[in-house]
Amino acid sequence: MSFCNQIKKRFIRLSRGQRKVAQFTIDNPNVIATHIASDVGKLIGVSESTVIRFCYAMELSGFSELQEKIKADLMGQDDKIEQSHPLLPKKNVNLLNEVMNRDVASILNTINIINEEQFERAIKVMHESECLYVLGLRQSLPSANFLTCTLSNYRREVKLIQPNAENIVQQISNMEENSMLFVIALDDNAEDVLTITKMAKNKKVKVIALTHSCISSLRGNADVLFTVGAQKSALAETITAAHSLIHALVEGMVAQNKKQYTNFQKVNAQFDNNSLYLEKTLSI
């Protein structure tokens, strides 16, 4: 049995902090194998002592032995000649159950690695910022559209940064200190996203980033960074987890002042109804 499978068998018996370390180890074995315990703790959002306590809970002598176990697992994976595509179901497996269970697993993994203090900080920033900008390029653009539309149901001053150089530069120049930039970067190509994020930080804008990798280059440039999905998840599963977290963040923002956001919804709905009535009247 691989060591990661041993972790899964003991998962339920671990403390909450140790579960975060366990899930991270399962999803990011290469990071465990190549980083020291203190760095791993920072990436996960737990203390170094929690990482060590996880090792003891797994009946290991310490972090070095954990690295040895994980390296052995990785060498065993290299010996496998054939790997099935994650989106191709095995024979006699119900496709509906297979796909939706992977989505559930991606969401559950995200729950386990989310830092609650970071979550609370993010929703506070979203609530207090006067203007919210949303950035998502390429495969992240649909998720950026989803966040923009969801936020627009509850508040004014929500702007999706359009993916062309002229609009990006113009909108970044319009940002003020009381603005916030929400960056969604779910693909591997983050060079341009990083450049835009640095431009926003130079304007002293708060940045919340949502990525698929805990070692994303955005980490040092975001006030809050969330990792969604798992290392080996297909993009579709990662997007599902991202949208679930987005939903939770918006709900958290609304909970900061439910009356304020509910009133905006009512006024906005009334405005839409009046506009629709006017359009019908003019067409007669």
TrEMBL record:
CDD domains: SIS_RpiR
Annotated InterPro entries: Homeodomain-like_sf, HTH_RpiR, RpiR-like, RpiR-like_SIS, SIS_dom, SIS_dom_sf, WH-like_DNA-bd_sf
Chain segments annotated as transmembrane: none
Domain called SIS: residue spans: 122-259
Source taxon at top rank: Bacteria
Gene3D superfamilies documented for this protein: Glucose-6-phosphate isomerase like protein, domain 1 (3.40.50.10490), Winged helix-like DNA-binding domain superfamily/Winged helix DNA-binding domain (1.10.10.10)
Domain HTH rpiR-type: 1-77
Cited Pfam families: HTH_6 (PF01418), SIS (PF01380)
Transcription is among the record's keywords: yes
Keyword annotations from UniProtKB, A to Z: DNA-binding, Transcription, Transcription regulation
PROSITE patterns: HTH_RPIR, SIS
The protein, known as: MurR/RpiR family transcriptional regulator
Organism: Ureibacillus aquaedulcis
